[in-house]
């Protein structure tokens, strides 16, 4: 939830911009969680990159003439690209949060600090939301399709060999 204008901020007599202070407080809490999330995501994306390299090597070694390789190889690359899109959106979110936090921290003692940083953050957040949604959608649909395809192939082969 984004900050509001009504949070109590400073003792009377001091000139502190309430909006800038509340945004700075909100960003400080959000950045701590985002830092942990991006650290874990970077580790997992590195692991995924290694696994995609191994899978690509094994699939190409098997040969592109094999029908299963013709399906699994592009699927592997598409899954990796959609996961990378998710990582890009996550890094962009952290950067947007940092920009908003630094702008609001600079505006704490400024009477002219307004909502322009908040508006820019919301616009970026809207674009990032589409990136997150499309990346997860591709991963879920393609991942489930691979599982159903492999499971269906296994059932059909088991039936034919019995």
Short note summarizing the structure:
It is built from three helices and no strands.
Describe the model.
This protein is mainly alpha-helical and 162 residues long. It has one domain (18-161). Helices cover 81% and strands 0% of the residues. α1 (18-62) runs antiparallel to α2 (67-106) and α2 runs antiparallel to α3.
Explain the layout of strands and helices.
Layout: H1 18-62, H2 67-106, H3 116-161
Please tag this protein with its features.
162 residues, mainly alpha, elongated, transmembrane helix, transmembrane
- Binned strand content: under 5%
What is the C-alpha radius of gyration, as a whole number of Å?
24 Å
Shape: elongated
Please write the string of helix (H) and strand (E) elements. Answer: HHH
Distance between the termini: 58 Å
Q: Helical percent range? A: over 70%
Q: What average pLDDT do the residues reach?
A: 82
- How many beta-strand runs? 0
Major β-sheet annotation: none
Low-confidence stretches: none
How many helical elements? 3
How many discrete domains?
1
What structural category do the secondary elements indicate?
Answer: mainly alpha
């Amino acid at each position: 939830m984004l900050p509001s204008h009504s949070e109590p901020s400073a003792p009377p007599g001091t000139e502190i911009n309430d909006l800038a202070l509340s945004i700075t407080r909100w960003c400080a809490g959000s950045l701590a969680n985002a830092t942990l999330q991006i650290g874990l995501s970077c580790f997992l994306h590195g692991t995924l990159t290694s696994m995609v390299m191994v899978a690509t090597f094994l699939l190409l070694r098997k040969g592109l003439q094999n029908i299963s390789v013709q399906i699994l190889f592009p699927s592997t690359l598409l899954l990796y690209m959609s996961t990378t899109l998710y990582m890009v959106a996550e890094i962009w979110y952290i950067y947007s949060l940092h920009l908003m936090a630094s702008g609001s921290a600079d505006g704490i003692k400024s009477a002219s600090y307004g909502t322009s940083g908040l508006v820019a953050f919301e616009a970026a957040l809207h674009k990032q939301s589409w990136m997150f949604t499309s990346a997860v959608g591709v991963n879920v649909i393609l991942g489930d399709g691979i599982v159903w395809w492999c499971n269906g192939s296994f059932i059909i082969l088991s039936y034919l060999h019995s």
